Amino acid sequence: MKKKSIKPIKPITKYIIYPVIAGVIIFVLQLIIPNIWKNLAKVVSAIFIFLGSSVLIKWWVFILLLLVVLLFITGIIFLMIIFGKKPGLHWSDYKQDGIDGVLWKWDYDGNTLAADGFSAFCPNCKKRLLYSYEGYNSKYYCDRCDEFRFIKRGNHEDIIANLYREIERRIHTEEWKENFQKR
Ligand SMILES: [Zn+2]
Fold it and tell me: Can you give the pTM of this predicted structure?
């Protein structure tokens, strides 16, 4: 079965239809309420007269009210400064950390860690580490410092999977913020 599409009202038709509807409503109202415009004008002028009238209050009440208003405004401005200008430290800013003696860097793909976004660097000289898989072990080696920075059982995928969970843990415990500020 073919789906029937609902045609939206064309903008030009909208400009004609709505004023016509409004006109009809006003016409009907005029029939129901006699002298609608005269009465409406009376109501509006009554409101303005009310707002323009003076009220007698003691000076100390006036000053007190003024102080309350000033305090309220200052409070709002203060809150705006505190909450408005605070540099937002978001977990997505957390993109590197020292984990198991390696400086790991990574990326996010939307709300999750990008599986292919992990890179290992030497914590000492910051050079990218060389990876090798020997005897069921993953080895991360810095050729500049001539040192193995990280050796662990498992292949590269195992290491990344563990890293993934560790980063996730640090985000959940907010531990990352401390590490972030130490940098
Ligand atoms: Zn190094």
Answer: 0.52
Span from the CA of 133 to the centroid of ligand 1 (angstroms): 19
Q: Supply 97's token pair.
A: 């950390």
Q: Cβ–Cβ contacts within 10 Å for residue 123, how many?
A: 17
Q: If you measure from the C-alpha of residue 91 to the centroid of ligand 1, how many angstroms do you get, rounded to a whole number?
A: 28
Domain stop point among 84, 111, 132? 84
Helices assigned H by DSSP within the chain: 11-32, 36-52, 59-84, 156-172, 175-182
The DSSP code sequence of 81-131 is HHHHSS----GGG--EEEETTEEEE--EETTEE-TT--EEE-TTT-PBPEE
Q: Residues within 5 Å of ion ligand 1 by Cβ?
A: 122, 124-125, 142, 144-145
Considering the domain architecture, whether residues 98 and 172 belong to the same structural domain is answered as yes
pLDDT tens string 39-62? 888 889 999 988 888 878 888 888
